[in-house]
Write a structure and sequence with these properties.
Elements (H helix, E strand, L loop, with lengths): L19 H5 L2 H32 L2 H9 L1 H11 L3 H4 L2 H19 L6 H29 L5 H29 L2 H22 L13 H12 L2 H21 L2 H4 L4 H22 L2 H16 L11 H13 L4 H10 L6 H27 L4 H18 L19
Helix pairs in contact: 2-3, 2-7, 2-8, 2-9, 3-17, 4-7, 4-17, 6-7, 6-9, 7-17, 8-13, 8-16, 11-16, 11-17, 11-18, 13-15, 14-15, 14-16, 14-18, 17-18
Length: 412
């Protein structure tokens, strides 16, 4: 697809009193945001369809959990091999190419009678493309909007992710009562294609940020430097592990209560939407910084209720409240961005996202494995207890940096 010549990567001017509407008046951000929205909707539908298909064919909690979140395992391959393309190639061209590859993968899932082994292979391929695409998208985001509005932009994208997940799970549950999983995959493919078209039509090309040639060596050089620094390493681990264990809890909803799984998933997504909206839009950067620990505790604690099998309305309320805890990622991501040199910000953001997604897959696999020995409710509570323990143990590691003040930018 044709693209305009590369231009200097200067963020457009946006009024200081920025809100979501002001961000969306930026044509490039609006295009990146719309493409992301359609991609999330497609991913939610295809994941729910694949989980339902695998549950019907195998009845295995482990395989069902892995089928819903298994793509996240492959994101680590992108982080370890070719993530430097997020900074070392033309970002628009890279993003369009990767979304095109994702479209092919989603469309292939719609083939009737495809063996489960082939479906899982496609799942891994999609995870690989997704990890590189996320790194490229987040690198572009940091160029498209000023630094002072980065957290607000991430908040809007997180809110949208939660909203699309709510709609995706709700619509997916309805669609799967009337359509086959293969037909739902077709719908997901159409949404993926629309997202590709929007990105291609709205994003202009930019210059390459990284002077060195991208590839395995450059990816490893940057990753080694990233993990050799204690502050960045600690931030990454706290962005990954507690969240991943809670996603492992969510992966067991189909096994715990198949008839209410869609409602439980939607409740968690609704809580995430509210949390990101409140934390990203209403709090200052300093306030976000201070509430990160409490949000991480809130993320896991409500899942302890599953050990006692309370009424479904109580569980729905607990999962909703827990979803707000995912907003803890915003202050941690802000800190990580502030510590990242400009030439590698796409790769670092990609590694952060890939690690978080991979831990979601690990959490789903752990949850499925534990549920083969314990009842699903007990397995959910066990994973939540470990998540709380990890958060408590790492509290001192994620406290204020003695060499740096907390972010002071007000993004309200």
């Amino acid at each position: 697809m044709p693209s305009s010549p590369a231009e200097p990567a200067t963020p457009p001017t946006i009024p200081s009193a920025t809100g979501y509407r002001s961000l969306l008046r930026n044509r490039e951000f609006a295009g990146l945001y719309a493409g992301f929205t359609l991609t999330v909707a497609a991913s939610t539908l295809s994941g729910f369809a694949l989980g339902t298909l695998v549950d019907h064919q195998t009845g295995s909690p482990f395989l069902t959990a892995v089928s819903m979140y298994g793509a996240t395992f492959a994101t680590v391959l992108g982080a370890l091999t070719l993530m430097s393309v997020a900074d070392g190639n033309r970002p628009r061209r890279t993003l369009v190419t990767l979304q095109g590859a994702s479209l092919v993968g989603v469309a292939a899932q719609a083939v009737p009678g495809l063996p489960l082994a082939a479906r899982f292979a496609l799942l891994l391929a999609l995870g690989f493309f997704q990890s590189l695409g996320t790194g490229t998208r987040m690198g572009l985001l940091a160029e498209i909007v000023p630094t002072s509005t980065y957290a607000l932009a991430r908040s809007l994208m997180n809110v949208t992710s939660g909203g699309m997940a709510i709609l995706g799970y709700a619509v997916g549950a309805v669609l799967l009562r009337h359509l086959s999983p293969q037909e739902v995959f077709v719908i997901a493919g159409v949404l993926t294609g629309l997202g590709l078209g929007v990105v291609a039509a709205t994003i202009r090309e930019r210059s390459i940020r990284l002077a060195r040639r991208p590839g395995l060596r450059q990816t490893w050089t940057t990753n080694i430097a990233l993990f050799s620094r204690k502050r960045e390493r600690t931030l990454l681990l706290n962005l990954w592990v507690p969240n991943g264990l809670v996603v492992g809890c969510e992966a067991l909803f189909l096994s715990y209560a198949p008839e209410h799984a869609g409602a439980l998933l939607a409740a968690g997504s609704a809580g995430m939407l509210l949390g990101d909206l409140a934390v990203g839009r209403l709090l200052t950067a300093a306030q976000r910084y201070r509430c990160a620990f409490a949000l991480r505790l809130l993320l896991a604690a409500p899942y302890l209720l599953f050990a006692f099998h309370p009424p479904m309305l109580v569980l729905l309320a607990g999962v909703f409240v827990s979803g707000a805890g995912f907003a803890a990622t915003l202050p941690l991501q802000e800190q990580l961005l502030a510590l990242t040199p400009d030439p590698v910000r796409g790769q670092v953001q990609g590694v952060e996202s890939a690690g978080r997604m991979t831990w979601q897959g690990i959490g789903a696999a752990i949850g499925g494995g534990v549920a083969t020995y314990l009842a699903p409710g007990a397995a959910i509570a066990a994973l939540a207890a470990v998540s709380v323990a990890v958060t408590l143990a790492s509290r001192s590691c994620c406290g204020p940096d003695p060499d740096a003040a907390p972010p002071a930018v007000d993004t309200r």
